[in-house]
Amino acid sequence: MQISIAVIVLVLSLIVFSIFYRGLPSLTWEMISQTPKGGYYFGKEGGVLNAIIGSLYLAFGATILALVMGLPVAMLMNIHLRKFKKLVNGVRFLLDLLWGVPSIVYGAFGFSVMIFFGMKTSLLAGIITVSLFILPIMIRAIDEVVKNVPVGLLEASMSLGSNKSQTAFMVYVRQCSSAIVTAIMISFGRAIGDAASVLFTTGYTDSIPTSVMQPSATLPLSIFFQLSSPIQEVQNRAYASAAILTIIILIISVLSRIISNKYNKNKIS
Amino acid sequence: MESKISIQNLNLSIGKNQILKNINLDIPENQVTIILGPSGCGKTTLLKCLNRLIDLEENVTITGSIFLDDEDILHTKSDLPGIRKKMGLLSQRPYPLPMNIYDNIAYGLRINGIHNKQIIRESVEHNLKQVNLWDEVQHRLKEPASRLSIGQQQRLCLARGLAVKPEIILADEPTSALDPLSSTAIEKKFVELKEEYTLVMVTHILRQARRIADYVVFMYLGEIVEHGTADEFFNHPKQEKTKAYLQGIFN
Ligand SMILES: Nc1ncnc2c1ncn2[C@@H]1O[C@H](COP(=O)(O)OP(=O)(O)OP(=O)(O)O)[C@@H](O)[C@H]1O
Ligand SMILES: [Mg+2]
What sign does the dihedral B54-A150-B153-B117 (CA atoms) show? Predict the structure, then answer.
């Protein structure tokens, strides 16, 4: 037990350390405030603002979309479909399978759908693809907690004359709010950190997208491209980009903790 | 004696197990009806038929009818929330809603379309006073209900139920998780409430039943063995099983 915790902490610190050790020197204000200029990929001036903004757009968009689709499904599974335990367990199994499908498969799927409709790479295509990719995570993370809500609370709410949807969105959502925040956070982390699902769907560009129909850069791809460069300076910037990604995820985690603690106080035990 | 609820030939099975067997019972209006019986005899299940919470269970087959006033509420597909609203529920342990004290009571009003702040505020105060909780919580209405003691939570649950103006109050061992003082408070309240409501309460505590019952129903293995006024039941029980139960042989 202690050993495994020690190993986890050690590995995590090593990763974070190596990112920041190589990345911090290159992590200048220019990196986060400018888009790549002409010679950027040869180690000249510019930054990765395009990828930062693109990733944030993409991750927020996909997370919101997945939440809007996933929350009702998790509620439906546990409240409306309560009586159909076998069906619901089947759905759980399916979602767990989907959770395990590599993101490149979602990317390929999104890409083939785009070809079918003659769409070009765009932020929208990326958001939809990534939202599908994180949807199973979102649903199951919420479901795991919703399914443990005591049935007495369901009965209490129903006996006041609420229908099932009111019970879901006015009672269960409150009871499970901290779990929902956690689910959002995990999903957001997956969405912002994944490269394979956005490669064919969102594309890459040096400018900041001004509409969802435009392609967009993302941090994981920006890391990938810079890391593949033979130029040392550019490689260091890849680490700087990774540091930015890590910091974004850190900020989101801390924010979500604060938010979930704020809402958690009403939870009944 | 007017009957408020009339249960006729009620049979209920879950899967292959028959849980309720041919229940026929009239529940008198504006009285306290106590349901007694050993554990597992179907008391909770019977209450759940009345407010149709039984619909939330799997594999249930029900036959018979339950008339509330003159409407068969067992088989109507429509307006279940409306039926449930007429029956406040107090469960074995309190389940306050995951929100603050004020909203716990306001919730029932809001879902029933009442949004006028003035009306809601008055209802919160009135119903908290009804259950003698107002003095204890009037300065902490915005605090989570979960911070109240169990006894306070149970009174809050009663207040919340009263706020939606039910006609009947169903209570399933409502005092079993409470300290003696809170139990007595609930008992006293029940006796007062029968002026306006019809009360049906399940209990395991014979002394409690003697204290507050007007009408008593004794169940055993899914059947009603005997039912009658409190006086008849406690002082002149007819069935051997009832006599045995009253002597405490089952417990
Ligand atoms: N969901 C269910 N599935 C299967 N059997 C059930 C279910 N709910 C209740 N039962 C069975 O129905 C019978 C009656 O249960 P019920 O809860 O109504 O008893 P009770 O009289 O309220 O008991 P207690 O005094 O212990 O609360 C029991 O034998 C129980 O095992
Ligand atoms: Mg019971």
Answer: negative
Write the ipTM: 0.93
Q: Which atom of ligand 1 is nearest to the CA of B58?
A: 1
Model pTM greater than 0.80?
yes
Q: CATH top-level class for A11-264? A: mainly alpha
Chain A residues within 8 A of B127 when measuring between CB atoms: none
The residue to mutate among B10, B11, B35, B41, having the most atoms of ligand 1 within 8 angstroms of its beta carbon, is: B41
> Tokens 């309460």 appear where?
B201
**Residues of A in Cβ contact (< 8 Å) with B157:** 156
Nearest CA to ligand 1 atom 27: B39
pLDDT per position as a tens digit, A171-203? 999 999 989 999 999 999 999 999 999 999 999
Per-residue tokens: B202: 């399940």
* Cβ distance of A266 and B98 shorter than 8 Å: yes
Domain count, chain B: 1
**Host domain of residue B151:** 99-165
Report how far ligand 1's centroid is from the alpha carbon of B91 (Å): 14
Beta strands in chain B (DSSP E): 3-14, 17-28, 32-36, 60-68, 71-72, 87-90, 168-172, 198-202, 215-220, 223-229
